[in-house]
Amino acid sequence: MIVLGIETTCDETAAAVVERTPEGGARILSNIVLSQIAEHAAYGGVVPEIAARAHVEALDLIISQAMTEAGKSFADLNGIAASGGPGLIGGVIVGLTTAKAIAMATGKPLISINHLEAHALTARLTDNTQFPYCLFLASGGHTQIVAVRGVGDYVRLGTTQDDAIGEAFDKTAKLLGLGYPGGPQVELEAARGNSTRFVLPRPMQHRKEADFSFSGLKTALRLEAEKIAPLTDRDVSDLCASFQQAVVDVVYDRLRAGLRLFREQYGAPTALVVAGGVAANQAIRTVLQRLASEVGTVLVAPPLDLCTDNAAMIAWAGIEKFSLGARDTLDVAPRARWPLDQLAADRGALLKTAAYK
Ligand code: KG4
Ligand code: ZN
Q: What is the pTM assigned to this prediction?
């Protein structure tokens, strides 16, 4: 089975062709990612309108590059998969509409993929990880611990109550005058800083539930920085190191709680899987590795280019879904919001309504 994947939910325009061999192995035939970082850098974050326009301008070319590199024509495809959300709606519309046009012109099946589900299934593309496994999704927009029990069977065990983990890195970088995106800059600074100089909180530590919170940490960091302003280079490095150590401690503690919940409900996971841009952080990878061995499981951390946003994961999720007989019609709608775990989302909405009443 050969599927073209298209990804346009944020600031990466991406297309990829992935094949599942008859023996069940996966081969990435091409994986093209065009980052828009330069377009957004001046604004210190992603500007939705600029992102949507950049996707329109680049997507055709990126798709034809992916097809050429794979050595395939549309006739060779078994289907087309596009990110249908959640994400910046302008970009999602561009990707999904393009996929619909190709599906219509070629008569090939179409599927709209939940971007988070694609992150969740990447470990099966790279490592053939078997169900059930415990996923830590750590990106600029999401911080979730998810029990992945099967294709389409996801239970959210924990999430953030405020900022996403990558967002916390980005805001820290912005506060300290470092570039965008902030995660890699903060990690670089942290490497030469003193992580014990500033005493910062570890929000939610020791709670039984597996939820996160980063806003208190962000505020504490700002207050420390304001106390000693103007900042020297050393101050910036020490603040980054102290911040990163706090995040590492939080990740360890919250994932420990998440794995405990997992075990109580579903038995031992086959693996602890990490996905999302923050998985690029070496200190976080190291602590996850330690945690995995402590609880007697393995850490699966896909290569960095498959942890951050890409279209190979969309194509792969398409393969998994097409194999189960799923497909969408041409009127499938793009979605700005699309929770992975509909049950948890419904519960949340119900609680909110109840509180409102
Ligand atoms: O998954 P991703 O590429 O895009 C989405 O958010 O979907 O994740 C981007 C996030 C940004 O917040 C970025 O600052 C963070 O991942 N990030 C890092 C590192 N590299 C990227 N955070 C910490 N350390 C890093 N080395
Ligand atoms: Zn993502």
A: 0.92
